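User: Fold this; tokens only.

Assistant: Input:
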Amino acid sequence: MGNITENTEKIASYKERAKQLVAQMTLKEKIHQMVHSAPAIERLNVKSYNWWNEGLHGVARAGTATVFPQAIGLAATFDEELLEEVADAISTETRSKFNMQQRFGDTDIYKGLTLWAPNVNIFRDPRWGRGHETYGEDPHLTSRLAVRFIRGLQGDDENYLKTAACAKHFAVHSGPEDIRHSFNAVVSDKDLRETYLPAFQACVEEAKVEAVMGAYNRTNDEPCCGSELLLKQILRGEWAFDGHVVSDCWAIRDFHLHHKVTANEVESVALAVNNGCDLNCGSLFLFLQDAVAQGLVAEEQIDTAVTRLFTTRMKLGLFDEPADVPFSSIGYAETDSPAMKQLNLRASRDSLVLLKNEGLLPLDKSKLKTVGVIGPNANNRRALVGNYEGTASRYVTPLEGLQDYLGDDVRVLYSEGCHLFREKVGGLGEAGDRLAEAKGVCAESDLIVVCLGLDSGLEGEEGDQGNAFGSGDKPNLELPGQQEELLRIARESGKPVVLVLLAGSALAVNYADEHIPAIVQAWYPGAQGGRAIAELLFGEFSPSAKLPVTFYRTSEELPAFTDYSMEGRTYRYMRQEALYPFGYGLTYGGIEIESAELSAAIVGEESIRASVRLVNNGRIAAAEVVQAYVRSEQEGAPNAQLKAFRKVHLEPGASAEVELTLPLGAFALYAEDGTASIAEGDYTVSLGFSQPDARSVALTGQTPKSFVLRASAAPIAAARPRS
């Protein structure tokens, strides 16, 4: 990073320049700059600019770009460094395409430098259709990955932002999708501060994210894009956020149409702007002309908002000579380059979670003559990419990955087997019209790879075209349609079966857990996903990913979808045993914990350092995620919670010393009023490759090292999420 003083002065100069520019604008010109498709002001040499651009897991909706694994797959890597590397690659491609498009006068939507990513909402319920856009269900994991992703997007130049990131959707937002425009998320101060806000605070205070996007819903009666509590008191007040706030798309009209908190368009835009929303994804802010005329909004408030917006544009170098902006030299050849493809493949490999392996994997190519590949996701490109995706120059489905890997040495037979969710594939066929073919493939094969799950047509955003479930949310956690019947056919053939699940969320695959010897959770693994899957199955690398969400046994054990209380939700508050727990994932390697120790036995003012010595006793290179969990033994406290983690790669026979830091905030408990404190009594710190729960221990065969610490009651000065 550059000199902090110089950087502060540079930002101040941008603000002053923006203020001077805005002072020359008419009220009408200023208001038109507050919608996402901001027009040019030729007399002031202001070019048109479209603020709406997506970069969740690659440059989206703007033509060819690298399509990385969906966000939930990136989260499964538990790898902060990789997240920053991927985000840096996304920002490189964003600049690459922007520079090219500017040269040809293209300033259309999805062509700018303001990326509306990452999505740091907490994936509190597996039925939520947009959960695969997030980093999972845990506030700590989400915070750490989001901070590094934002740093990768924004870069570390002392004078300019590489791109501008946006933390969304602020706040307390995770479905249901079909009522999001009218829904009121009621949440306690405890859950707000403990679960729903920490990631946003980390994005603001640590990563210095340039923008924050409000959510569609209300939170405790206030529409999020016009919430005094969220936007004024917390975001700009407590956290001193200095960037700009953008509404979700067309969310402002929900104020009067659906939330019914205002009477009309003029009142809605006034509520939003007066509470600190600067930019409207949509066009309703054009009613600000009337709001000012009626005395509902002061022109000074308009000036403040527009100054914030132009400050961002100036930080991006859009008002400086290209020769002075280092990112202006990034050429179009950087997009979809061989280096990008290689990084994408590495990210895909690192995102795959091995859920079960009864000695079947890795496969031995020399012992196979025919491999059967069946299932609706075996050759489904949509199951590679999730949503908010770009267009890859080449897609490798699981079928194609296995065909490429096995070449002419092993024959690959294929059957779709069944439709993803309907009862038949062909329009004129009878129900189950591909099941006989699947049986035939199984009969001819030495081994069967079954590719099941979902795609972004089944789980996604309300309003997405082609959403089979209408709202985008899942009605339950079952495999849709005839998929489980197809899996039973494969198993009953008597041949060895590998199940590959391509889905962005948890599925209740109880039958598979009981009967299938090998299961891989592949998420939406990106354009290179099929290649990574084939390489994993045949042992080209050891899987290392962990689950960023809990896999439940049934949706019936979940609280109501509309209940935003965390009681009974996620690994932190659930009481029943998980099918596959958060933080769980197997490897092929032999990494073990040789020893572990803590720097203190008492929780005091200083951070506690956990030292873990690892050794790879296996025969192959491998990686593991060292995880530190903290649990208060006080009655009513949450389950053990993830508070630190580190991914470590080791060659065979190699060892490493890993140090994790547990600050005072890692031991905090939240009261109903949202304040945090240290409870008097014992705390258990567990260090291992999984949670310390019984199910994780049974699945991994390893028990984390546990230490009991003593604490005296004490308030935490910053009674807010750790920054």
